[in-house]
Amino acid sequence: MFKRRLAWKAFQHVAAYNSAVFEWFWKQTKSGEFVSSFNVFLERSSSLRYGQNPHQKAAFYLDKSLSDVKLGGIATALQHHEKEISGNNVLDADAAWNCASKLSTPTCVLVKHTNPCGIASRDNLVDAYRLALEIVLGWSTSSVVLLLYL
Protein backbone atom coordinates (compact mmCIF):
# COMPACT_ATOMS: atom_id res chain seq x y z
CA MET A 1 0.00 0.00 0.00
CA PHE A 2 2.90 2.35 0.77
CA LYS A 3 4.35 1.96 -2.74
CA ARG A 4 0.95 2.66 -4.32
CA ARG A 5 0.66 5.86 -2.29
CA LEU A 6 4.11 6.97 -3.42
CA ALA A 7 3.23 6.16 -7.04
CA TRP A 8 -0.02 8.12 -6.71
CA LYS A 9 1.88 11.09 -5.24
CA ALA A 10 4.46 10.97 -8.05
CA PHE A 11 1.80 10.90 -10.77
CA GLN A 12 -0.05 13.73 -9.05
CA HIS A 13 3.08 15.90 -9.31
CA VAL A 14 3.70 14.88 -12.92
CA ALA A 15 0.08 15.67 -13.86
CA ALA A 16 0.31 19.13 -12.26
CA TYR A 17 3.60 19.78 -14.05
CA ASN A 18 2.20 18.63 -17.40
CA SER A 19 -0.81 20.88 -16.93
CA ALA A 20 1.44 23.88 -16.23
CA VAL A 21 3.51 23.14 -19.35
CA PHE A 22 0.32 22.76 -21.43
CA GLU A 23 -0.94 26.12 -20.16
CA TRP A 24 2.40 27.82 -20.92
CA PHE A 25 2.46 26.49 -24.50
CA TRP A 26 -1.18 27.48 -25.04
CA LYS A 27 -0.39 31.06 -23.99
CA GLN A 28 2.50 31.13 -26.47
CA THR A 29 0.11 30.51 -29.38
CA LYS A 30 -1.66 33.85 -28.73
CA SER A 31 -4.58 32.59 -30.79
CA GLY A 32 -7.18 34.44 -28.72
CA GLU A 33 -9.36 31.33 -28.68
CA PHE A 34 -10.55 29.52 -25.62
CA VAL A 35 -8.55 26.43 -24.79
CA SER A 36 -10.42 23.20 -25.61
CA SER A 37 -9.79 21.69 -22.16
CA PHE A 38 -7.87 22.40 -18.98
CA ASN A 39 -7.14 20.83 -15.62
CA VAL A 40 -7.79 22.37 -12.24
CA PHE A 41 -5.82 20.94 -9.34
CA LEU A 42 -7.54 21.26 -6.00
CA GLU A 43 -6.21 20.36 -2.58
CA ARG A 44 -8.38 19.15 0.28
CA SER A 45 -8.31 21.92 2.85
CA SER A 46 -10.67 20.33 5.38
CA SER A 47 -13.09 17.54 6.07
CA LEU A 48 -16.64 18.69 6.52
CA ARG A 49 -18.92 17.46 9.29
CA TYR A 50 -21.35 16.27 6.59
CA GLY A 51 -22.59 17.22 3.11
CA GLN A 52 -26.08 18.57 2.48
CA ASN A 53 -27.51 15.82 4.68
CA PRO A 54 -26.07 14.37 7.92
CA HIS A 55 -25.59 10.88 6.42
CA GLN A 56 -23.30 12.18 3.63
CA LYS A 57 -19.51 12.40 3.84
CA ALA A 58 -17.98 15.60 2.50
CA ALA A 59 -14.71 17.47 2.11
CA PHE A 60 -13.77 21.01 1.07
CA TYR A 61 -11.22 21.49 -1.71
CA LEU A 62 -9.21 24.61 -2.46
CA ASP A 63 -7.29 26.01 -5.40
CA LYS A 64 -3.94 26.68 -3.69
CA SER A 65 -3.09 29.48 -6.11
CA LEU A 66 -5.96 31.52 -4.63
CA SER A 67 -4.77 31.19 -1.05
CA ASP A 68 -1.21 32.09 -2.05
CA VAL A 69 -2.40 35.52 -3.24
CA LYS A 70 -5.00 36.05 -0.46
CA LEU A 71 -7.97 35.49 -2.77
CA GLY A 72 -10.67 32.89 -2.74
CA GLY A 73 -13.47 34.34 -0.64
CA ILE A 74 -14.72 31.96 2.00
CA ALA A 75 -12.40 29.23 0.74
CA THR A 76 -9.46 31.06 2.32
CA ALA A 77 -11.35 32.81 5.13
CA LEU A 78 -10.44 32.34 8.77
CA GLN A 79 -12.90 30.26 10.78
CA HIS A 80 -12.91 31.17 14.47
CA HIS A 81 -15.10 28.31 15.65
CA GLU A 82 -13.36 24.96 16.17
CA LYS A 83 -16.36 22.79 15.26
CA GLU A 84 -16.18 21.29 11.76
CA ILE A 85 -18.55 23.00 9.37
CA SER A 86 -21.03 21.20 7.12
CA GLY A 87 -21.56 21.47 3.38
CA ASN A 88 -24.60 23.65 4.09
CA ASN A 89 -22.44 25.98 6.20
CA VAL A 90 -20.07 26.40 3.24
CA LEU A 91 -22.98 27.39 0.99
CA ASP A 92 -24.30 29.81 3.63
CA ALA A 93 -20.86 31.36 4.14
CA ASP A 94 -20.48 31.81 0.38
CA ALA A 95 -23.87 33.56 0.21
CA ALA A 96 -22.84 35.82 3.10
CA TRP A 97 -19.51 36.60 1.43
CA ASN A 98 -21.28 37.52 -1.82
CA CYS A 99 -23.40 40.04 0.11
CA ALA A 100 -20.71 41.56 2.29
CA SER A 101 -17.77 41.67 -0.11
CA LYS A 102 -19.46 44.36 -2.20
CA LEU A 103 -19.55 46.78 0.74
CA SER A 104 -16.72 48.97 1.98
CA THR A 105 -17.80 49.47 5.61
CA PRO A 106 -17.68 46.97 8.50
CA THR A 107 -20.55 44.57 7.78
CA CYS A 108 -22.30 41.64 9.43
CA VAL A 109 -24.40 39.20 7.40
CA LEU A 110 -26.61 36.49 8.93
CA VAL A 111 -27.59 33.72 6.53
CA LYS A 112 -29.98 30.78 6.88
CA HIS A 113 -30.24 28.19 4.07
CA THR A 114 -28.32 30.48 1.65
CA ASN A 115 -30.78 33.35 2.22
CA PRO A 116 -29.50 36.54 3.83
CA CYS A 117 -31.89 37.15 6.73
CA GLY A 118 -30.03 39.99 8.43
CA ILE A 119 -27.42 42.38 7.10
CA ALA A 120 -26.08 45.56 8.61
CA SER A 121 -23.17 47.93 8.03
CA ARG A 122 -21.93 50.30 10.71
CA ASP A 123 -18.74 52.07 11.77
CA ASN A 124 -17.69 49.03 13.82
CA LEU A 125 -18.39 45.30 13.71
CA VAL A 126 -20.04 45.12 17.14
CA ASP A 127 -22.72 47.63 16.16
CA ALA A 128 -23.19 45.92 12.79
CA TYR A 129 -23.60 42.54 14.51
CA ARG A 130 -26.11 43.89 17.04
CA LEU A 131 -28.22 45.52 14.33
CA ALA A 132 -28.17 42.44 12.08
CA LEU A 133 -29.16 40.27 15.04
CA GLU A 134 -31.95 42.67 15.97
CA ILE A 135 -33.35 42.28 12.45
CA VAL A 136 -33.61 38.49 12.72
CA LEU A 137 -34.48 38.05 16.41
CA GLY A 138 -37.36 35.62 16.71
CA TRP A 139 -37.13 34.64 13.06
CA SER A 140 -34.03 32.49 12.73
CA THR A 141 -32.75 29.99 15.28
CA SER A 142 -29.32 29.42 13.78
CA SER A 143 -27.39 31.12 11.03
CA VAL A 144 -23.99 31.48 9.51
CA VAL A 145 -22.50 34.76 10.70
CA LEU A 146 -19.99 36.53 8.49
CA LEU A 147 -18.20 39.59 9.82
CA LEU A 148 -16.30 41.58 7.24
CA TYR A 149 -13.88 44.36 7.97
CA LEU A 150 -11.88 45.56 4.97
Concise synopsis of the structure shown:
The protein is an alpha+beta fold. Helices cover 39% and strands 19% of the residues.
CATH domain class: Alpha Beta
Beta strand %: 15-25%
* Name given to the CATH architecture: 3-Layer(aba) Sandwich
The Rg value, from CA coordinates, equals 20 Å
Largest sheet: 3 strands, antiparallel
Q: Structurally, how many domains make up the residues? A: 1
Instruction: Supply the helix-strand structural class.
Output: alpha+beta
> Helix proportion of residues, in percent?
25-40%
Order of helices and strands: HEEHHEEHE
The neighbouring-strand order within the major sheet is 4-3-5
Notes on the structure:
This protein has a single domain (42-148), classed as 3-Layer(aba) Sandwich (Cytidine Deaminase, domain 2). The mean pLDDT is 84. It is 39% helix and 19% strand. The protein has a three-stranded antiparallel β-sheet with strand order 4-3-5, with helices on both faces. It has a two-stranded antiparallel ribbon with strand order 1-2. The N and C termini lie far apart (47 Å). The chain is α+β, with helices and mostly antiparallel strands. The longest helix is centred in the first third of the chain and has 28 residues, at 2-29.
Topology, please?
Blueprint (H helix, E strand, L loop, with lengths): L1 H28 L13 E6 L9 E5 L1 H5 L18 H14 L6 E6 L2 E7 L3 H12 L7 E5 L2
Antiparallel strand pairs: 1-2, 3-4, 3-5
Characteristic terms for this protein:
IMP cyclohydrolase activity, Cytidine_deaminase-like, single chain, AICAR_Tfase_dup_dom_sf, Cytidine Deaminase, domain 2, 4 helices, three-stranded antiparallel sheet, alpha+beta, phosphoribosylaminoimidazolecarboxamide formyltransferase activity, extended, 150 residues, IMP cyclohydrolase
